[in-house]
């Protein structure tokens, strides 16, 4: 009886916390000013929120097999959400999406210019 | 098993997340903003699946979530490839 109560309280807390993190990510999605800050908000908050929801499912429905599946799902979620947001921010940068004006050191622009010069000198007749 | 008030609160929070994401999809100035909002809608959908699976005590819910967490990033990767076109 007491164990059931503890499982219910811990699982409910994890579930509500995960959903609240997803909702805060959505608030950031509406309020933040440019593509890169929005991508950062989704990549970090959605990874953590979905990981907490998976942990809640494992707590409610506990067995060793579910624990293994849940751990695999949490690790995959934490890795792949950051990969997805990275790829999307890179695509936005390559298509010329402007960052907000307070973004001061734009190091990616310098790196892109340098690598463009290097590839131009290495292959003078254009793209191989 | 899972209390009804928890189901209501979690579904309400996820509904807020989806509605705000749809606002960003409609309003978003570039295609990248819409893609990011679609990503968040997908994550909120994983949460909805988890809550309904716990509510009706479906055994396969952890498998569904596992597949969604492992393969879900392919959608956003393909959207990014589509967005940047021919450049690498």
Features of the shown structure:
heterodimer; A: 128 residues; mainly alpha; B: 88 residues; 4 helices; flat
Any chance you could write out the topology, listing elements then pairs?
The complex is a heterodimer of chains A (128) and B (88).
Chain A: H1 2-31, H2 35-60, H3 64-94, H4 107-122
Helix pairs in contact in A: 1-2, 2-3
Chain B: H1 4-27, H2 31-55, H3 61-71, H4 73-84
Give an account of the 3D structure:
The complex is a heterodimer of chains A (128) and B (88). Chain A has one domain (2-99). Chain A contains four helices and no strands. Chain A has helices at residues 2-31, 35-60, 64-94, 107-122. By secondary structure, chain B is mainly alpha-helical. Chain B has one domain. Helices cover 82% and strands 0% of the residues of chain B. The longest helix of chain B has 25 residues, at 31-55. Chain B starts with a helix and ends with a helix. Chains A and B meet through helix 1, helix 2 and helix 3 of A and helix 1, helix 2, helix 3 and helix 4 of B.
The poorly predicted ranges of chain A are: none
Whole-number count of domains of chain B? 1
State the end-to-end CA separation of chain A.
70 Å
Radius of gyration of chain A from CA coordinates: 21 Å
Shape of chain B: flat
Number of E-state strands of chain A: 0
**Rg over alpha carbons of chain B:** 16 Å
Largest sheet of chain A: none
Percent of residues in beta strands of chain B:
under 5%
Overall mean pLDDT of chain B:
88
User: What is the count of DSSP helices of chain A, taking H or I runs of 4+ residues?
Assistant: 4
Overall geometry of chain A: elongated
Largest interface, counted with CB-CB under 8 A? A-B, 51 and 52 residues
Mean of residue pLDDT values of chain A: 83
- Give a count of the beta strands of chain B, DSSP E runs of length 2 or more: 0
Order of helices and strands of chain B: HHHH
How do the SSEs of chain A run, as a string of H and E?
A: HHHH
Assembly type of the shown chains? heterodimer
Low-confidence runs of at least 5 consecutive residues of chain B: none
Percent helix of chain A, as a range, is over 70%
Helix content of chain B: over 70%
